[in-house]
Amino acid sequence: MTTLDLSPAPGAAPLPKMVLAQAGAEVRATLRNGEQLLLTLIIPILLLVGFSKAPFLDVAGPRVDFVAPGVLALAVLSTAFTGQAIATGFERRYGVLKRLGATPLSRTGLMLAKTAAVIVVEVLQIVVLVLVALALGWSPHGNPLTVALLVVLGTAAFSGLGLLMAGTLRAEATLAGANLVYLLLLALGGVVLPVSAFPESIRPLLEILPITALTDGVRSVLTGVGGFPVGATLVLLSWAVLALAAAARWFRWE
Amino acid sequence: MEDAAVEVRDLVKRYGRVTAVDHLDLRCRRGEVTAVLGPNGAGKTSTIEICEGFRTADSGSVRVLGRAPDDPELKPRIGIMLQAGGVPQAARAGEWLRLVSRFHAHPLDPSALLDRLGLADHARTPYRRLSGGQQQRLGLAAAVIGRPELVFLDEPTAGLDPQARHACWDMVRELRAAGVSVVLTTHHMDEAEKLSDHVVIIDRGRVVAEGSPAELTGAERQLRFRARPGLNLDEVLSALPPGSAAKESPAGHYIIEGQVDPSLLATVTAWCATEGVTTEDLSIERRTLEDVFLELTGRELR
To answer: Which segments constitute the ABC transporter domain (chain B) (predicted)?
Structure first.
């Protein structure tokens, strides 16, 4: 039988090491989860290829130039909001958040790890989707740093909303709700259907959705039509502040 | 006092109108194994979870290793095993343990610990596919991997098969030998009797008795035997010294309590002879912790 030295030698690992370990575990869990991959990669790739090839859309210029930015925004939505909400909802339900709270990893450390994991998954999604889009003849324009800024703000806004949902609803309700919101925002937020396709009367409502701000902002930069997307940035910033504040206020760990 | 691993004074915890913990005092000495016993709903888990920092007290004072339970400094120093769960359903046993080990400065080797608890063959099994007993053992492993000074185990052997129970007991004994303080809750009297230095019996949110297992079971002995049902015990009682008691429970099982000495034994066997009763399984036993427990907390189901 193995001898173990059980004599006390307590001590916390350095914070960066703990955050890295937790983030690694979360990335692995996401990549291993079939349903998550469906939302984060397979659906965006199918939409990208389908709407670029098939003549459903009536847009100026190559269709892929319109579809690719929308699908990048969808990738951010799927990981920061849907995936994170569902995973965190079930972690809460199964007492994982409680158990982690009993380790030296602080709540701040856990949130840093979740953010890092979301960003790593997003980078992987963006690399895959950009390669597919380029293969479809996409020719992006604009400043990548502006796109990165919009993605970061979008990530903050969607993470706030996802955590708010996960921290207040039952896990099953979060599962259903997060998927429903994903579908609604995919349909309404200018991802593959231009917002101009909807009746005039509901457009102002659609335009203040975080997904619409993200798709419009990313699309205007990457198609090179506008300058810096001030409106989209402000909408995303507002959502990020409100959603993160609400999550911080109402998130329940158990 | 310095040598207390856990010091709880006048603790009160209410859930709505229900008082789960009612002015409870608890002291667990360092380097000892303390068992907290009590029926379901007695307030064991509430008390433990307040010590662990998961819940807050309504009033009273709680010090764990001399600190407030929510002090972040405590986290690396205590190891916690929840009653159930706490692990992502899809996480593999080995990965989960390795993850928890990475939160600590001087952890045990995760593979050696898995091996030790008989989980080596399941290192790659997702948590949800482990049996209940395997999940419990993984919880125990996660509680000790950081080499803590104090370990809280909430019903560590619930649902374990006998082999796994013994593995868990061995671990608790080794922890104690290594100088780790252990606080455990249990329903198993034999577990408390075998493992602990100090037993605290809680009922309705209060401590009803405490002491070492020997102190609690006391010097009092019982004479037990089996015979045909329906013997008239009044006759034998009248022959015994005052203060003795006799009962038949269940039918055909007799217990004589009192000053159990050779003369009492002689009186009882003489009475059996006059009655023409052949006894079986005649024995003199000390009260078990279970007897004490049932005496204190009652027999009715709740």
So the answer is: 6-229
Q: Where are the domains of chain B?
A: 4-216, 219-286
The highest-level CATH class for domain B219-286 is alpha beta
- Residue A228, φ and ψ in degrees, nearest 5: -65, 130
Question: In A, what residues contact B, Cβ < 8 A?
Answer: 1-2, 4-13, 17-18, 21-22, 25, 28-29, 32-33, 90-91, 94-96, 98-99, 101-106, 254
**DSSP structure string for B94-152:** HHHHHHHHTTBSSPPPHHHHHHHTT-GGGTTSBGGGS-HHHHHHHHHHHHHTT--SEEE
- Torsion, CA A227, CA A231, CA A232, CA A235, rounded to 10: 160
Strand order in the sheet with B198-203: B78-81, B150-154, B181-186, B33-37, B198-203, B206-211
CATH of domain B4-216: 3.40.50.300
pTM strictly above 0.95: no
Nearest Cβ partner for B105 among A2, A11, A254: A11
Which range among B81-95, B103-117, B156-170 shows the weakest confidence by mean pLDDT?
A: B156-170
